[in-house]
UniProtKB/TrEMBL annotation:
SUPFAM superfamilies: P-loop containing nucleoside triphosphate hydrolases (SSF52540). It comes from Panagrellus redivivus (Microworm). Residues 793-1069 form the Strawberry notch helicase C domain. Keywords: Transcription, Transcription regulation. Belongs to the SBNO family. This is Protein strawberry notch.
């Protein structure tokens, strides 16, 4: 018998429903009626009556807005005149008030209580912090510490203090400017009071004599002093609590905790829009009093276990509980007017060809690695498991770069269209490829004649470093691992000080050599003379420091790199650092150790929970990101690559050609001309640059991707969708079928090489090394050839195609780049070349160029994702609307939110347009899936609603890392292992038996499936969602897309079934619908005691009247004259169940009808035609008969269930099916404090997820709490009495 497919099952269900009409009304009314309202609501301070209006609309999630904040009992010492002049808005004053009020209380442990500011970008956390410091300064607490992520933010701190209190109110000192030792001794008359500003990197620094910055500021502050300590951008300390399989806490996280514990009376302020992306990242927030003595959780581990077990609902509860206790506040700018869209970029046939060729090469590479390891293992009895982790990580990073490269043409076209529409563009990415560029630059002695291909460098580097050629060495040995990670710490220190190579000196020497070789001796003499004059001039910019200042810009693209498990840990280096002399300029580099190494170690873990979080090869520290410009980076940190790179084929594939577009000047965007309409005063215009002349070979190689001119549209997302559709149409001619593209009969390009196919089993031991060297050389040769068609560095490609450095403001952490000259040649230049500014200030200057309109395109990476404002500020000359294109989504949710916040801030002229570009490659969905899950977790923890950060359905549909995703994956594996036993057979290309077998072989090849004694089964280590999605990248395009399409089909069916069963966790919901009459019937207040501290919980009895009176339905019938009054079968007692039915409007969609009943109100029914429903019911003879039946059911079902109404016999009072007025119980108040009782009560019930509900009563009361099933209410009361001696103190 043929197995049913997913589509056939769904279709059968729909057809059955259409034949039988709607299900029985009683079946329709099972479960709790919940609805989803608006996620955000505009918010105003409820109990703070000071401060001026905020310049932008501020919103709060509905969940947090329903929480009543504590009463205000404190009076601020800030002079009223400063508040009245608008320096602090009412929104900022609310945060100042509650922070200062929280500081007046102490925890049970004796430590002073802290406060967490979770406001989003643009609300004004800087001024809020300034207000807190000023309040304490006015009360005589004149020593404060301000910690942040970058020394650049010192200027922002000065600005915020000046804006509120005026210039020179309180001196601000930079910690790195002091020598080690007592601060007061260095400036006796000045440093005894004021604000010490320090970065997290300087906080963990130590001198060679063992003196630490941490002890230095503790001594200055005073151990019993009660001043303010601000942890600005506190998410920097998030990795205090390591995950399973990692080797320890981060140094910064430990120093932050040590500072708090050493100063028990300090007034702690945590400030970050992304303070915790997941529960374990809250570990450093010890002063909030969520865990510890006097709380429901003795230790942080107990709290973490409960919250992770209960999921998103518990996270939302934590955020709301903190606000209720006056510990936390979280608002953000309104998203009104902001456009958000996700666009899938189609894959050109040429791209698929390159991708599939790369897959074939990696498959052969895997084969040769396997042969080599087996040969050496037979001799030295060693295992090479560690080396395989390096292999798969490099492989994933290789294909990730291919995924990004395919989006470059679309990104460029969208950017140019946005400029035509009078907008400006901000492009966000993470990978800059500086490491590979530096490697080639060193090999070529400072000269680069072509762009560097990052994927090629990764490929060649893996072969050179890890292909084994010596039986006495293991590629995974410590020496090789260290070479892969970078140099040893001692080598780093030594080579940092002697500077491995000076880019500027190399450029000068290259130019002198070129003039000499060309025989231009006179020009050479003039050039040498100019150098002498330049050396004689006094320095206009400060010399780049070799010490602390070089490391204080730590929030760079290298910082806190998102590893496979999205965490930092300090392995062997930690012990070394603690027991040796460690200078601050080394701390950042060691703190942000090589992400790849830990990522690969994570992939070896067999712990299922760790596997579920791991993301192998997410972003290599040295490859994916780069340090900020003033950090000394060594080439030795990267992987040197031999061989030349020809970018001709790369240009053909990944560059745009506009030769066929009439009147389109490719280089017009290079002109720094500002539209007069956009600015009140025009900035100075740069002289027009002459068009570049491309080399002849590159002209011939350019690829025509878009040939038609698309009409101008207002929304850039509409234009992008049209471009995407056009690209699909243009490529359909070249599209090959899935079966043809991956046929198993296709000959392998490596089979004709005897080196790759030779039998190594009987090789003489003396010939092992020479044989392996031959294979390695052949692999390097093939890698060089395939590298000719691989894409060039993404960042360089974007800048080159968008007009070059003259038109694009680059705000990244790299120090130099490859640029194209006027004659079409390429050359490496430092980023400040031609600019009268030091390299460490180049990002600030580039920002000014963008904000002044000199450059209308900005590209930002992690280095510019904190503290830089790029929005359409009313005070800036460039007021154009921003189009923010995300080309590469960060692994970390906090990074994503920080980057989005650059273009959406207060006082903006226009809200931005956000556009996510995602390729149609299934493997890239893996990166989006992780980001979506973490954004939901961030929203749950910081805003009490998982939709607060990732509200878009376009992004949420990729959230598959959950229990439904795991179950769907198991069904997919079962289909490949035993196709005849699978529940749902695929309907896509996998239905083809040949294609199915080829796809299964690819799953075996990449290690997701394996053969054991001839039987295929799942590899337990690689059978998790993350590993499955990772390994999809290693398959041909059509294969991975077909597998992922089938997976998503199964996943969608499981989610739909869960929603139908009422078991799907939708997050915080509203109790009742908009038409229901909601009333708080009764509230019981229970008072309990925990560690001597009293607390209260409130048990609300909520009634929801869902009924529709005859007057209401008569009014609806007048609006919808096409509707009919109908009834179904006559019951035994002669009663009928009346209803009013009308079809949905055409705008709503076909196949939807609206049904109104007297007892349950209005609801929609899908997949049922209006005619079908009418055919299965009877129409009332007249309205009088209908009215009588309607009024009867409306009256009786007020306090009786539908069974009693139909049968005439009363059912138990607990039955509420069909009852017009239903009752619910909601637990509010100190729920987190009474958690043990709540947990036991939930476990006695169905053990379901925690359901947070919001209630808006008709009396305009806002309530929020945990929904409690009626059958466990008594159990809950008993547990409250048992654990906390809780008694009923009042009810109302």
């Amino acid at each position: 018998m043929e197995k049913p497919t997913i589509a056939s099952v769904v279709k059968q269900q729909q057809q059955q429903q259409q034949r039988n009409g709607p299900s029985d009304e009683a079946a329709e009314d099972t479960g709790v009626q919940l609805s989803t309202a608006t996620t955000f609501v505009e918010c105003f301070p409820r109990k703070v009556r000071t401060g001026g209006p905020h310049p932008h609309t501020i919103v709060e999630t509905s969940s947090m807005n329903a929480v009543e904040p504590p009463d205000v009992k404190i009076r601020l010492a800030i002079p009223e005149v400063w508040i009245d002049n608008g320096a602090l808005s009412c929104v900022q004053m609310e945060a100042v008030v509650y922070a200062c009020q929280s500081h007046e209380q102490h925890l049970a442990s004796g430590f002073r209580r802290g406060f967490l500011i979770g406001d989003g970008a643009g609300v004004g956390k800087g001024r809020t912090i300034a207000g807190i410091i000023i309040h304490n300064y006015e009360l005589g607490r004149k020593r404060s510490i301000w910690l942040s992520v970058s020394s650049d933010l010192l200027y922002d701190a000065n600005r915020d203090m000046t804006d509120v209190a005026g210039a020179n109110y309180a001196p601000i000192f930079q910690l790195s400017k002091f020598k080690y030792g007592k601060i007061r001794d260095q400036q006796p008359n000045k440093s005894s009071k004021g604000i010490i500003f320090a970065t997290y990197a300087s906080l963990v620094g130590k001198s060679k004599q063992g003196e630490s910055r941490l002890n230095q500021i503790i001594e200055w502050f005073g151990r019993d002093y009660d001043g303010v300590i601000v942890f600005d951008e506190c998410h920097r300390a998030k990795n205090l609590c390591p995950k399973a399989g990692t080797t320890g806490s981060s140094m910064i996280g430990r120093c932050v905790v040590d500072l708090q514990r050493a100063l028990p009376q300090a007034r702690i302020v945590y400030a970050s829009a992304t303070g915790a992306t997941e529960p374990r990242n809250m570990a450093y927030m010890e002063r909030l009093g969520i865990w510890g003595p006097g709380t429901a959780f003795n230790e942080f581990g107990d709290f973490l276990e409960v919250v992770e077990k209960r999921g998103m609902g518990a996270m939302e509860l934590v955020a709301m509980d903190m606000k209720r206790r006056g510990l936390y506040i979280a608002r953000q700018l309104s998203f009104y007017g902001v456009d958000f869209d996700v666009l899938e970029v189609p894959l050109a046939s040429e791209y698929k060809k390159v991708y599939d060729e790369s897959v074939a090469f990696w498959a052969e590479l895997q084969t040769q690695f396997t042969r080599a390891f087996e040969l050496l293992s037979a001799q030295n009895k060693k295992t090479y498991k560690t080396a395989w982790t390096h292999f798969y990580s490099a492989c994933q990073r290789f294909f990730k770069h291919l995924c990004i490269a395919v989006k470059v043409p679309m990104c460029v076209e969208i950017a140019k269209k946005a400029l035509e529409q009078g907008k400006c563009v901000v492009i966000g990415l993470q990978s800059t490829g500086e490491s590979q560029t530096n490697e080639v630059l060193e090999e070529e002695n400072g000269e680069l004649e072509e762009f560097v291909s990052t994927p090629k460098q990764l490929l060649v580097s893996l072969i050179e470093k890890y292909f084994p050629t010596d039986a006495d060495e293991e590629p995974g040995s410590i020496d090789n691992m260290m070479s892969f990670k970078g140099l040893d710490n001692e080598d780093r220190r030594r080579k940092r000080k002697r500077q491995v190579f000076d880019f500027e000196a190399m450029e000068i020497e290259a130019k002198r050599r070129k003039l000499w070789e060309e025989g231009k001796y006179d020009e050479l003499a003039e050039f040498d003379e100019s150098l002498k004059k330049k050396d004689e001039k006094p320095a206009t910019a400060k010399v780049e420091s070799e010490g602390e200042d070089d490391k204080e810009r730590e929030d760079s693209d290298d910082e806190d790199s998102e590893k496979d498990s999205d965490e930092e840990s300090e392995p062997e280096e930690e012990e070394t650092k603690e027991n040796s002399d460690t200078s601050e300029d080394e701390v950042e580099e060691e703190e942000e150790k090589d992400d790849l190494f830990q990522a690969l170690m994570d992939e070896l873990s067999t712990d299922e929970e760790d596997e579920a979080e791991a993301e192998p090869g997410s972003s290599n520290h040295d490859t994916e990101t780069e340090a900020s410009p003033n950090e000394d980076r060594e080439v030795e940190d990267e992987q040197p690559v031999n061989g030349e790179h020809d970018d001709t084929a790369a240009l053909k594939l990944f560059f745009m050609d506009y030769n066929n577009k009439p009147n389109h000047d490719v280089w017009a965007s290079r002109q720094r001309i500002v539209d007069k309409e956009s600015f009140t005063e025009s900035p100075k215009k740069s002289p027009k640059k002459s068009p570049k002349k491309l080399p002849k070979k590159e002209k011939a190689a350019t690829n025509v991707v878009l040939k038609k001119k698309v009409k101008k549209v207002d929304k850039i997302s509409d234009f992008a969708k049209k471009v995407s559709a056009e690209m699909r149409m243009n490529d359909m001619v070249h599209e090959c079928t899935s079966t043809e593209s991956c046929s198993s009969s296709a000959p392998s390009p490596f089979n004709n090489n005897e080196v790759f196919t030779a039998d190594l089993s009987n090789i003489d031991p003396s010939d092992v090394n020479s044989t392996l060297l031959q294979i390695k050389d052949e692999l390097l040769d093939r890698a060089a050839r395939i590298g000719e068609s691989l894409p060039i560095n993404t960042l360089d490609a974007l800048i080159d195609q968008l007009g070059g450095p003259e038109a694009v403001a680059e705000m990244t952490g790299r120090r130099g780049r490859v640029v194209r000259c006027k004659d079409g040649s390429t050359v490496y230049k430092r980023r400040n070349d031609g600019e009268n500014v030091n390299l460490d200030l180049i990002n600030i200057q580039e920002k000014d160029y963008f904000m002044n309109g000199n450059k209308l395109v900005a590209i930002i990476s992690e280095a510019a994702s904190s503290g830089i404002s790029l929005h359409a500020d009313r005070r800036a000359l460039n007021k154009r609307r921003r189009v923010h294109i995300t080309l590469e989504l960060p692994w970390s949710a906090d990074r994503a939110v920080q980057q989005f916040g650059r273009t959406h801030r207060s006082n903006q002229e226009h809200p931005p347009e956000y556009l996510f570009l995602i390729s149609e490659l299934a493997g890239e969905k893996r990166f989006v899936s992780t980001a979506s899950r973490r954004l939901q977790s961030l929203g749950a923890l910081t805003h009490g609603d998982r939709r607060a950060v990732a509200e878009s359905d376009d992004l949420a549909r990729f959230s598959i890392e959950n229990k439904y995703g795991k179950k769907a994956l198991g069904m997919v594996f079962q289909m490949f292992i035993n196709p005849t036993s699978c529940v749902f057979r695929p309907r896509n290309a996998l239905a083809n038996i040949q294609f199915f077998k080829v796809s299964r072989e690819h799953l075996v090849r990449v290690g997701v499936l394996k053969r054991v004694n001839g039987t295929i089964c799942v590899d337990r280590e690689n059978g998790t969602i993350n590993k499955f999605l990772n390994r999809l990248l290693l398959m041909p395009v059509d294969v991975q897309n077909a597998i992922f399409d089938y997976y998503m089909t199964v996943f969608s069916l499981l989610v739909r079934q869960a929603k139908s069963d009422g078991t799907y966790d939708n997050g915080t919901m509203d109790l009742g619908s908009s038409t229901d009459h909601v009333t708080r019937a009764k509230t019981r207040v229970y008072q309990g005691t925990l560690s001597g501290t009293r607390f209260e919980v409130l048990l609300h009895r909520i009634t929801v009247d869902r009924g529709y009176s005859w007057a209401d339905v008569k009014a609806t019938a007048q609006v919808h004259p096409e509707g009919l009054f109908l009834y179904g079968a006559v019951q035994k007692n002669g009663r009928v169940n009346p209803c009013f039915v009308y079809p949905a409007d055409s705008a709503t969609g076909s196949g939807i009808i609206h049904i109104i009943r007297p007892n349950t109100g209005r609801h929609q029914q899908k997949s049922t035609k209006f005619e079908t429903f009418v055919a299965h019911h009877k129409q009332f003879a007249n309205l009088d008969v209908a009215k009588a039946a309607w009024d009867l059911q409306f009256t009786i079902t007020k306090d009786q269930c539908l069974h009693s109404y139909n049968n005439g016999v009363k059912h138990p009072a607990t039955c509420e099916v069909g009852r017009r007025v239903r009752g619910y119980y909601v637990l509010a108040g100190a729920v987190l404090t009474a958690w043990q009782a709540v947990e036991k009560a939930l476990n006695r019930g169905r053990g379901a997820h925690i359901q947070i509900v919001r209630i808006q009563t008709n009396e305009n009361q806002k309530l929020v709490g945990v929904l409690v099933s009626p059958n466990v209410v008594q159990t809950l009361v008993e547990e409250l009495g048992s654990h906390y001696q809780a008694t009923l103190i009042k009810q109302y």
